[in-house]
Design goal:
alpha/beta
């Protein structure tokens, strides 16, 4: 079993909050993490139809069984249960009493903020990070192509599974089924086309009108569908960094996937070998790097606040990470041989923060004031 970095954060929060909420994508390891952190607590899956029905019809009777605490898995199945938890925890000073896991921010966040404000510690559990996988010998030296193609959902590392078959099942059983139910979409074909269109826009500025033309739904619907994908931990939007280095900034966000394996599957990439010469290799590598930056922040219990920077003349920085007293700028290149052209955008920011270049080669070095970082050692620098 691969140890999760988030475990330390969860146990720390459990000392100061009566409820811990663990959010994240389906199959990202939330259940395993909960059981590892709290092995003595009863485990209750609300995806079990009997548990779900009991919790909805008689929430007080349901909770009476677990007066001393429990792990309630996939709490979004019975979100009203959260209101009744408030009454119980307000009459007790016990910390870390209830652990709630969920895979939909949309259904959870409103209920938690209404009923458990100040009472719940919230963490986000994403699929494995490079740092976590690096601790396992057989995964430590994966090529970048394999890392992108396979992605990082735990079942692909815990079991002997064919990557493409598992991602196909995951897309059908969780991504499409869950989200189509949330959106009340009956047309399976149209929604599948929307997902593939998202994958084809990985790393690009979000243009709802362009999506609308390609899919055949209006721009308002596109924005709504994108917000649901984000709330369900399928995609995320990278916001532009607004600090006014000049006034001609692009202010629309860019689109990325939480898992490059899922993006690769939706792009119909058949194997890790195909990544090498694929038209989306650069976009997928960029997605992988930015995803690792997100995981690094979240696994430390920090707010994830990565950005990009671009002006209307095409000057762009792929990743901007504000720090307490400084800003780090990252250029991301999928090539394996360093060229002077890679430094053009970075050099314009030499007076504004730390300069870094992340690439698909194998050497980490310092060159002309720029920290060059191999993808193999990325987790050591984030």
């Amino acid at each position: 079993m691969i140890k999760r970095d988030l475990q330390k954060v969860v146990l720390t929060l459990a000392k100061g909050f009566p409820v811990i909420v663990i959010q994240g994508p389906r199959q990202s390891g939330k259940t395993t993490l909960s059981k590892l952190c709290f092995p003595k607590k009863p485990y209750v899956s609300l995806e079990n139809p009997d548990n779900e029905l009991y919790a909805k019809e008689d929430p007080r009777g349901f909770l009476e069984q677990y007066k001393h605490g429990a792990i309630f898995d996939e709490i979004q199945r019975s979100p009203d249960l959260i209101r009744y938890l408030q009454e119980i925890i307000d009459n007790s000073k016990e910390m870390g009493r209830y652990i709630l896991t969920g895979s939909s921010q949309l259904l959870l966040n409103e209920k938690v903020s209404q009923s458990l404000a100040g009472r719940a510690g919230i963490v986000e559990c994403l699929p494995f990070s490079q740092a976590e996988l690096s601790r396992v010998k057989k995964h430590k030296n994966m090529s970048i192509e394999e890392s992108i193609y396979k992605g990082s959902y735990p079942p692909l590392y815990d079991r002997d599974l064919d990557t493409r078959h598992w991602l196909q099942a995951y897309t059908a059983q969780y991504v499409e089924k869950d989200i189509r139910q949330l959106l009340n979409i009956q047309d399976h074909t149209m929604f599948h086309l929307f997902l593939k269109t998202c994958a084809a826009h990985t790393g690009q500025i979000i243009d709802a009108a362009k999506f609308s033309n390609q899919i055949g739904v209006n721009a308002t619907t596109v924005k709504r569908w994108l917000s649901i994908l984000e709330a369900s931990y399928i995609c995320f939007q990278l916001r532009p960094y607004y600090k006014n280095y000049n006034k001609r900034l692009v202010k629309k966000p860019k689109l990325y996937f939480y898992d490059t394996g899922l993006a690769s599957y939706l792009l119909n990439i058949q194997s890790s070998d195909d990544i090498t010469s694929h038209a989306y290799k650069g976009a997928l590598f960029e997605n992988w790097v930015i995803g690792e930056a997100l995981k690094s922040k979240m696994n430390k219990g920090q707010l994830a606040d990565p950005y990009f920077w671009r002006d209307n003349k095409g000057v762009e920085i792929d990743l901007v990470l504000p720090e307490s007293h400084d800003v780090s700028f990252y250029e991301i290149k999928s090539g394996k041989t360093i060229t002077s052209d890679w430094f053009k955008s970075l050099n314009k920011f030499s007076d504004h923060g730390k300069l870094n270049l992340i690439y698909a080669g194998s050497s980490t070095t310092l060159r002309s004031g720029v920290q060059i970082i191999s993808y193999k050692e990325l987790y050591k620098w984030l």
